[in-house]
Design brief:
The chain has helices at 44-48, 64-76, 78-83, 96-106, 121-126, 169-176, and strands at 31-35, 39-43, 52-57, 86-92, 113-116, 129-131, 139-141, 144-149, 152-158. The protein is built from six helices and nine strands, in the order ββαβααβαβαββββα. It has a single domain (27-176), classed as 3-Layer(aba) Sandwich (Glutaredoxin). Helices cover 28% and strands 26% of the residues.
Length: 177
Amino acid sequence: MALARMIPIPAPPTSATNMTIQIGQPIPSANLSVLKDGAQAITTAQIFGGRKVLLFSVPGAFTPTCSERHLPGYIEQHDAFKQRGIDVACLAVNDAFVMDAWSKSQGVPDGLMMLADGNGEFTRALGLEMDATKYGMGLRGKRFALYAEDGVVKQLAVEAPGEFKVSSAEAMLAAIA
């Protein structure tokens, strides 16, 4: 009788590999996409390298709080961020086509980047993913905002589930002041 061959099974990920990014840490390397003459890849190095960037994340384009409060706040305050030399980017675990349609429906100004993290890879690398399968939404990003200078996190505001307080445009302008 032949013995069965042993196949090593990798250990489950530890909490260290799923930790949330912290202030002082570099933005992880990842590819995102934007819609410009078709879906285009853009790296986190291109987005954050040598720049001041405020990145805010929404659980989903076209969802109520995201469309009625979160994105509109950043649209209204876009010039205030620009005056401080800060680029603004919106992130969602959606595809570039959805982000583009949402951008058009919300009147997003030129210069406010609408970043698609289609498979949630960047969101997972940040440790800011959430499981929304019980709502029929699959893997999504938590509602958060982070401010980075030259690819290093300087401020991080992660919302408690169901809340919208610390990641608003107004709250982040005050935090960065």
